[in-house]
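Reposting from the mailing list since nobody answered there.

I have sequence plus structure tokens for a pair of proteins and want to know whether others read the tokens the same way I do. The first protein:
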Amino acid sequence: MRAHKGQSTVEYILLVTAVVAVIILFTTTKDSTFQNRLTSVFNNATQDMLNVASRLQDNAASSSTPAN
């Protein structure tokens, strides 16, 4: 039984190493498509969060104003 646990640990380490190597390869290549897409995703997510924060702030300001 112990050999199976050691084998699965080694397989897990190899898999994680391969994934990290691929990520490093794609992100360090100059002008890579992967890097451009990742930057675009982060920029879009940031803009969406700013839009939601602005709407929440506007709603909070309008709800705190007393009605006539």
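The second protein, same order (residues first, tokens after):
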Amino acid sequence: MRITTLFMCFLASILISNSAIAQDIEVIEDFEGFEHIPINEMANGWIEQDDDEESFEVVENPDRGDANDSEYVLQFNRAYDGDPWAGFWSDLPDGVDLTERKYVHVQLWKPRESPVQFKVEGGDETDDIEIESIEPHTETEEWVTLSFDFEEHDATGEYSVISLMPDFEDPVDLEDDLVIYIDNIVLSDSPEDPFPLEDDDAEQRITIEDFEDDEYIELNVQANGSLDSEEDAFEVIDNPAPDDVNDSEKVLQFNRAADGDPWAGFWSELPEVIDMTDFGYIEVDVWKPRESPVHFKVEGGETDDIEIEPIEPQTKTEEWETLVFDFAEEGATGEYPIIALMPDFEDPLELDEDITIYIDNIRLSNTSDKATSIDDPTEEPDIASNIELEQNYPNPFNPVTQIQYSISEHSNVTLEVYDVLGRHVSTLVDETQSPGQYEISFDGSDLSSGTYIYRLQAGDQTQSRTMMLVK
């Protein structure tokens, strides 16, 4: 049986938090992706002035080993005639919060011993702070970790800009250019060296499953009669009917056997458990040829196993529909390692032949709203809407897309982006606006490929749509 796992790429800023480790860590940048924080060179002499030369480049790790096993690192071509403070500064997409984590750690590979300085700027509570590492740089031509103690300098709150000056020798005393490698800039709550970081400690932003990848969660067929094997029952295929509700490229096809049980479907022991402490709703997109009950179940958690039907029953056939399951009402909380979906729970079954059902975008949410469903434009709304949210264009996009909307009344307007777990990604609009049409850009440069939800609220009315980032 194939056991597979879907992991999303690291974001530029990714939280690492696990009770099994002593430190609370936030990765500012690990340079493992082709997208990374903006790097702005400073005071780097002739290289900075020469259009044909680059101060910075992400390259393969030239000295990969126990001290730093990263595949990619940042190469800094340090000009012999640059200033002592040559290096880079970066206006971070998400900033850094030094309220709880007050130590910055950086891994460096340098050909000579020299001071290293780190600076945080643009804070909302303190002045800019520039300091040297706790221990000086003493090892050459190997990876070392340097740590910077901002607690001693009363750093607190958020800072939008960081700067690194990895060769602060004054005077510079260089006859030739030299190469320095930089990697893994992280925050922590301890001055202790946090490296190596363990992959198991990474709290990654993941969908439970969207079937967009060749690898996906293990599917264990249950009660599907003559088609009771993974090969016969399930297959990831091209979306047979993409629409506004689900324009995913790939979906899961379920061949539902006529002689199966009502609870035919699948169960899966997830590679990453789901935490329902703050996200009490599960949403699933389904395409079915007939109306029938749908059941979803979570197992192995702090509570008893919970199996429920959606808030609203399935009403559409031969088109995509989003079903929402309210586990919050059932008292679900904490982590659950197993999910089960029974998408055709008709009892008795009453099938003369096998049928095909399509399943996609299983995700957690912190709201009972159908965050990814779009009203059928042919249906007459019960209440006249004063807002209109358009589908973004282009869609899919990489990395920039445009979002248009209109409001008919003077309103307090917010336009926000969420991931499919319901986690806030970005606020694009938060202001009072007059009636009219508006357009705004959304840049997903620092996000992983996947489906995102953008939500417009004007007064007490809301509309949501989905968009897909493909890198």
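Reply #1 (J.P.):
I read it the same way you do. The chain has a mean pLDDT of 79.
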